[in-house]
Amino acid sequence: xxxxxxxxxxxxxxxxxxxxxxxxSELSWxxxxxxLDGKASGSGEMWTEPLGNMLLGIGFMSKQDNxxxxxxxxxxxxxxxxxxxxxxxxxxxxxxxxxxxxxxxRVVFENPAHDFPQRITYSQIAEGVMQAKAGSKKDDSxxxxxxxxxxxDCQSPSR
Length: 159
Prior knowledge:
two-stranded antiparallel ribbon; Lipocalin; single chain; mainly beta; ten-stranded antiparallel barrel
């Protein structure tokens, strides 16, 4: 509970809410290579194992044996203790999303000021199966897309 004195003696109280502590080591289930289920070969994501304050990732889509889209990503724990997902898609500007929810096998990052997406979610839905969702709020629900990723061999992620 945070109590603040406003003006000449009026006291306002508010609950200070924050996401419970998450150690990046808890995201080790994301580490490795992932191929998009049902998509062209050569499309997917690769994530490092958590190393100190960061995980590094790259996402890519291929079309006719050429990379058509890519995204550099990182999940970082800052000195403040807050955790952010940071994305740089296909050479665009960096965008940050703050961790707002997490469970043992699910993380949700949000940036309501961003046009699309405003929310990014990663979930381990089964052993060797990860789901990535991206969406923006529209009419009291989130609209966007969902990708199912299957763990694959990092030596040949396109096969």
